[in-house]
Structures are given as structure tokens and as C-alpha cells.
Amino acid sequence: MIMPALRKYPPELRERAMRLVAEARKEDSELSLNAAVIRIGQRVGVNPDTLRGWCKQAAIDAGERPGTTTCDAIRIKQLEAENRELKRANEILLAASSFFARELDRRLPW
Predict the structure, then answer these.
(1) How buried is 12 (Cβ within 10 angstroms: 0-12 exposed, 13-18 middle, 19+ buried)?
(2) How far is CA 62 from its chain centroid?
(3) Residue 67's CB: how many other CB atoms inside 10 A?
(4) Phi, psi of 5 (to 5 degrees)
(5) 29-40: per-residue pLDDT in tens?
(6) At what angle do helices 48-61 and 70-104 cross, to 10 degrees?
(7) What is the pLDDT at residue 102?
(8) What is the pLDDT of residues 34-63, one digit of tens each?
(9) What does the radius of gyration of the chain's CA atoms come to, in whole angstroms?
(10) Which of 37, 94, 99, 105 could form a disulfide with 52 if both were Cys (CB 3.0 to 4.6 A apart)?
């Protein structure tokens, strides 16, 4: 499967595009998010799916729709990494304690 190249958009373009989507939806209350991101995305050169994701995440971060906020997602990622490291450390400590227990008492069956 061929994956498209990732494009990193500058923060100014990202904010401008999201602002234009919000303004377009404010001017035309019947305009859906999908229609707005397609229209604005073509004008500013941003993939509509990318722009839709930005707008949805901004709404989540603002508390306007349910979901995991950006701050929470970062914290969850940090906690998961810490959890992996602690599990790894526990495995090492368990192996070390087992090794030293065998060394101290040769009668144990391990």
C-alpha cells in the first residue's frame, strides 16, 4: 500500500483556514462543516480531511463537542510511556530477585 507523503502546514495557515471555515459557517448557517472545509480547503491549499480534523479538534478543545482534548491526549501518551517503562523495570527487578534468590538458597528448585 502506498502512503501519501505527510505535509506539515505552517501554524499561520492552519489558524487562517480554521478561521475561514468558522466565518463561512457563521455567514451561512445552513453550511455544513463538510461543505465548508471542502470550499475553504480548496482555496487555501489544505486537504479537506485535514482541515475537518483541525476544526473538530478545535471544537473539542473549546468544549463545544465531546472528545479527548489535545492536552489530555498528550498527558495520556506520557502516562502510557511511563507505564511501559515501569512494567519493564518491574520485569527486570523480578528477574534479578529470582536470580539472587537462587544464588542465596541452592535448595530452591528454580
Answers:
(1) exposed
(2) 16
(3) 14
(4) -65, 140
(5) 899 999 999 999
(6) 80
(7) 79
(8) 999 999 999 999 999 999 999 999 999 999
(9) 25
(10) 37
Residue 21 identity (one-letter amino acid): V
d(CA 93, CA 87): 10
User: Using CA atoms, how far apart are residues 48 and 57, in angstroms rounded to an integer?
Assistant: 14
Task: Cite the DSSP H helix spans in the chain.
Answer: 11-27, 33-44, 48-61, 70-104
Q: Are 18 and 50 in contact (CB under 8 A)?
A: no
What cell numbers appear for 75 in the block? 498527558
Dihedral sign of CA atoms 45, 16, 25, 6 in order: positive
C-alpha–C-alpha distance, residues 110 and 100, integer Å: 11
Name the residue type at position 12: E
Residue pointed to by grid coordinates 523495570: 89
Cβ atoms of 14 and 50 within 8 Å: the answer is: no
Three-state secondary-structure class, residue 39 = helix
